[in-house]
């Protein structure tokens, strides 16, 4: 059973709110330099990337647009279902646009390789990926994010948008769950 206070279920904090904000600022500065003189459309992947999108976009010292796409490759637990479904498409026509896909974590890479493939057919000027976390050992698909916050070991993490059964997204830190949560 989970505890009444969301923070109590974390067994280990991997990244604090402060560390996350600092790293996002570094990424935003790099993005601003790389995209200088070009328009920028951030595409966030619902629902996990909500926090990253909000904070990365506000760390950007320049104009950008934001749109959202909802795709699902995960079941309700800690293992990928292996099937990608488009739940909500973009509202924006990305023809000739510089698209930066914003995600919170790359695990197997299935979701993003499917998405980049799908966006690739829409005549965007460019499509790149920014992700806060990546699990290199779990990668099974060829996904090459241009911006990565941190590489992490192959374990299930929650917080800062990342859920376990739709909970823990509202944690400010990122960490691993105590075993009692799973039983
Ligand atoms: P992928 O397609 O790369 O395997 O992962 C797709 C999605 O699975 C991620 O965007 C994320 O929503 C979810 N996911 C992957 N690894 C984790 C994890 O360690 N914790 C949580 N909460 N979700 C994860
Ligand atoms: Mg996600
Ligand atoms: Mg999830």
Automatic annotation (TrEMBL):
Molecular function via GO: glycosyltransferase activity
Pfam families: Pribosyltran
Compartment annotation: Cytoplasm
Domain Phosphoribosyltransferase residues, every copy: 18-165
Catalytic activity: IMP + diphosphate = hypoxanthine + 5-phospho-alpha-D-ribose 1-diphosphate; GMP + diphosphate = guanine + 5-phospho-alpha-D-ribose 1-diphosphate
InterPro entries: HGPRT, Hxn_phspho_trans, PRTase-like, PRTase_dom
EC number: 2.4.2.8
Pathway: Purine metabolism; IMP biosynthesis via salvage pathway; IMP from hypoxanthine: step 1/1; Purine metabolism; GMP biosynthesis via salvage pathway; GMP from guanine: step 1/1
Assigned keywords, A-Z: Cytoplasm, Glycosyltransferase, Magnesium, Metal-binding, Nucleotide-binding, Purine salvage, Transferase
Main location per the UniProt record: cytoplasm
Record-given protein name: Hypoxanthine phosphoribosyltransferase
Organism for this UniProt entry: Nocardioides bigeumensis
